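Example record used in the benchmark description.
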Amino acid sequence: MIRNCRPQDGLDIVPLLAQLGYPASPEQATRRAHEWAADPERHLLVADVGHTVAGLAALCLIPLIHRDQPIARLVALVVDDRHRGTGVGHALLDRAEQLAQQSGCEEMEITSNRSRDRAHRFYRSHGYDDWCERSARFRKQLSPE
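Model output (structure tokens):
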């Protein structure tokens, strides 16, 4: 079952964030779950499998000055190691796409580290194109890590 993340899911998303390569303390994860739940432009979804949080998807809706419709950006998608290959990722991505469409988005983009080959194959299998060669993406650290 795909549902909105609840603040009490904070502890359950800690290992998922770690598996994605972004460790967080239980306090950080719980605070972030609260923040995401309070913002209508952000959707934090979890896959609930047998009362266990088996996956997570984080979707942001982004208004653009040069377009009438917002775009959707999937900024995180992770399935617990024990549940990979069971359809959890497909269900999370499908629900994120539905939310994006319901919010008026005509396009969805996904950010993913270049080292995640398996994830890239997954996204391509869902009809996503890697367009980084056509459009540059720049990043600058604004504060110390």
